[in-house]
Write a structure and sequence with these properties.
The protein is of the alpha+beta class and 454 residues long. The chain has helices at residues 78-84, 142-153, 176-187, 194-206, 210-213, 257-262, 298-304, 341-347, 363-367, 375-380, 416-422, and strands at residues 20-24, 33-35, 50-54, 60-68, 71-74, 92-99, 102-108, 240-244, 253-256, 270-275, 280-287, 291-294, 312-319, 322-328, 356-360, 371-373, 387-392, 398-406, 409-412, 429-437, 440-448. The chain contains 11 helices and 21 strands. The protein binds a DNA duplex (20 and 20 nucleotides) through residues 172-174, 178, 185, 189-190, 192, 200, 246-248, 250-252, 254, 286, 288, 290-291, 293, 295-296, 298-299, 362-364, 367-370, 372, 374-376, 402, 404, 406-409, 413-414, 417. Residues 174-196 have a biased composition (Polar residues).
DNA sequence: GACAGGCTCAAAATACTGGG
DNA sequence: CCCAGTATTTTGAGCCTGTC
């Protein structure tokens, strides 16, 4: 099925009013389950080709969607899901939409009670224990999943300060956090700015001292939670701790050493962080005198999950070496499904700028007839394969140029020479390329820079 | 001449260590 | 907790060769 895509959306539904629907199971839904037509308005903009179900097992299931006319069905993988969860005729299944085609699922049986499930590693094809921790049993339960929001929100909001606008176009992968660092370093060196101080102070209010936050299962080095039970521990009772993202957090995060020792994390060196969307990130731990630092791999996590100065991260130990990370931004909102900075910008009402980059024309651009493009820009904007793109000049005239990537290097080539000649490009001129839509750049050519500066 | 592709090397960014 | 410094990795500029 061709994915239906709405250009608008990615935005997660408001966390305070997540849409839900339920289905009472009749025999047919064991093959495929229809999504109510009225509910589909909440899916606008998401890709309809697949859905991810966060099961009561605490596992993520990837289910194919099938569209018939105006109807949308949970199809491929649904029967496996039903089988794995022992769904019966008359069962009442609640789907809560988390955004980005992710649903948490609750199952009530004919007695109107929430069904209990064993937290076993599932081996069914659609189940997302595909990552490197496939053998591990995750202990995130359905109730946990639905409770996490309340749990985290019970902490006071860290700060009401407004965030700075997002720099979407960046030169040479300058992350927001990095940018923040640079800014901080410029304004003052060792002493934090008043804003940061404030954040810090509030941090202590919001994050109970680690000793109090951390609730461990009795005296076992690792929490052997194997069964979801009505009385089973909720996420709040899983061992966890909270940390606030600081400017230096783009480089590393420090974990409380006591927590790591108690749960045997240090001995493992490499652990897995998992976001609420189920994506796993392998990171390395470095044992230090007074703390344990998360090093290699951490940066990827911060970038992909849009962590910024002031955000709170709640790390919950859900398996021997797996920490589930709940994010809470500086405004106190839990961001369960951050997908991109653009999405974050949408959610917080910030202005979205078109991605752009700029380059100065160099001699070889004219001599050899190609123009190099920052790799980071290409990666961020999905320019990853050879294709034709359109350059639109200030007169509205369009030029077809070949975009290609070779050896991890991206450049405009075929057609570039014509463009450069037509616009009388000279060495030192600055060109600003704004990606206004897929495959189309608007080009602004600025005047020659002050005599090549020197 | 235009285009495709490869190589080297310096600069920048990132990962990590040391220590106040 | 946080900054400074160093080591390592990644990226892009520049140039070259081969093919059409």
């Amino acid at each position: 099925m061709a994915p239906l895509k709405n250009p608008n959306a990615n935005a997660s539904p408001s966390l305070t009013k997540r849409p839900q629907f339920f289905r009472v199971l009749i025999p047919n839904p064991f093959v495929k389950l229809p999504i109510p037509q009225n509910f589909m308005k909440h899916l606008d903009g998401d890709q309809y080709s697949k859905a991810t179900l966060l099961s009561p097992h605490g596992k993520f299931w990837h289910i194919d969607l099938h569209q018939e006319g105006n109807d949308l069905y949970l199809d491929g993988g649904w029967s496996d899901f039903a089988k794995e969860h022992d769904l019966c005729t008359g069962d009442f299944v609640v789907f809560r939409y988390e955004g980005n085609m992710v649903f948490t699922v609750k199952v009530f049986d004919v007695t109107c009670c929430l069904k209990e499930y064993e937290l076993a590693s599932c081996k069914s094809p659609g189940c997302s224990s595909t990552s490197n921790e496939s053998s591990e049993v995750e202990s995130l339960t359905l109730s946990q999943s639905s409770e996490h929001k309340d749990e985290v929100q019970c902490n006071s909001t860290p700060s009401s300060k407004k965030r700075k606008s997002i720099e979407i176009s960046r030169k040479r992968t300058t992350s927001p956090v990095t940018a923040s660092i640079k800014k901080t370093q410029k304004t003052s060196s060792r002493s934090a700015t008043p804003t940061i101080k404030k954040t810090k102070r509030i941090t202590h209010v919001s994050s109970t001292p680690i000793k109090r936050i951390e609730k461990t299962t009795p005296s076992s080095p690792t929490p052997p939670i194997k069964k979801a039970h009505k009385n089973s521990p909720s996420l709040t009772s899983l061992p966890h701790f909270e940390k606030i993202v600081r400017p230096y957090s783009s480089k590393y995060m420090s974990f409380p050493k006591k927590f790591c020792i108690r749960h045997g994390l240090i001995s493992r060196k490499g652990i897995t962080l998992k976001n609420l969307k189920g994506k796993s990130y392998d990171v390395l731990l470095y044992d230090r005198a007074t703390e344990v630092r998360v090093g290699k791999g951490w940066r990827d996590f911060t970038l992909e999950n849009g962590l910024r100065d002031g955000d709170a991260c709640i790390f919950k130990l859900v398996a021997k070496s797996t920490l589930l990370v709940c994010l809470k931004d500086v405004l106190g909102e839990i961001e369960a499904h951050k997908d991109s900075r653009e999405e974050i910008a949408c959610n917080s009402g910030r202005v979205i700028e078109y991605p752009q980059f700029e380059n100065i024309v160099r001699p070889f651009n004219l001599k050899l007839g190609y123009f190099t493009i920052p790799r980071s820009f290409c990666l961020e904007n999905g320019l990853v394969k050879k294709q034709h793109i359109i350059l639109e000049d200030s007169d509205g005239k369009k030029w077809q140029i070949q975009f290609l990537i070779r050896n991890e290097r991206a450049k405009f080539q075929k057609g570039w020479s014509k463009f450069s000649k037509a616009h009388d490009l000279k060495v030192g001129k600055k060109c600003i390329f704004t990606l206004v839509k897929e495959n189309t750049f608007r080009v602004i050519i600025e005047k020659k820079q002050a005599e090549n500066d020197a």
